[in-house]
Amino acid sequence: MISLLLALAAVQAEPPAQSQTQPLSDQEASAKCAGLVKSDAEQAVVIANDWLVKGGGMFARQCAGQAYAALGRWEAAAGAFAEAAKEAETSVDPRRADFWVQAGNAWLAAGNGARAREAFDKALATALLTPQLRGEVYLDRGRAGVLLNDMAGARSDINEGLQLVPDDPFGWYISSALALKEGLLARAQDDIAEAVRLAPEDPNLLVHAGNVAGISGEIEAAKGLYAKAIRVAPDSDAAKAARAALAANASPPDNPPQPQSR
What we know:
Elements: H1 2-13, H2 26-39, H3 41-53, H4 58-70, H5 74-90, H6 96-109, H7 113-125, H8 131-147, H9 151-164, H10 169-182, H11 185-198, H12 203-215, H13 219-232, H14 237-248
Helix pairs in contact: 2-3, 2-4, 3-4, 4-5, 5-6, 6-7, 6-8, 7-8, 8-9, 9-10, 10-11, 11-12, 12-13, 12-14, 13-14
């Protein structure tokens, strides 16, 4: 009995076993953060900042950027992505190009064309982008140019982007929108036609195509494009814009009431 009691006491005196759980790698923590961003972006910000305090690097900053972007806090998102890019540059990490692209797009969303173009320039300077992503960056750089009212620079960038990604309907869409600003109606028509050919069910493209048709005097074509936008995505913002356009351009009744004589 005594030996049994001593044995039990020895067991109880032993320190608890160390947890076998290994800390998450940066990649695993990033994946976990990305999932949290979708379900609770506010909590993702808290987690990312805590991760930074505990020594988290560019992945923690990227997590913060993603969370801020999900919340529409675009300047904060851009700053976080830019810090991630700078840290990646210090460690010569190839992800620096992607971080600069993310920063640029966040600055675009914030309406800061100058900072956006600066970030895109840094991404392009890395020579790490695939041809397709390089084309997309040129398109986004063109959008930054429009924000800066640099139409010549925007046109140059958009043309460069379309050379690299000719199958991107959004590229043709923004080229068409720029052509309208440039007063080039024929180009606007051609470019939005190409965009719709590539993505015939996109309601935003259909609405813009309707606008271009209306400007061109093709009223029935415009109505048909607006109607299709409503049909393919009835609850979208594009459909709301299409309904407003149809209402604004409604034909007067065949027999309008005559003013009453006084």
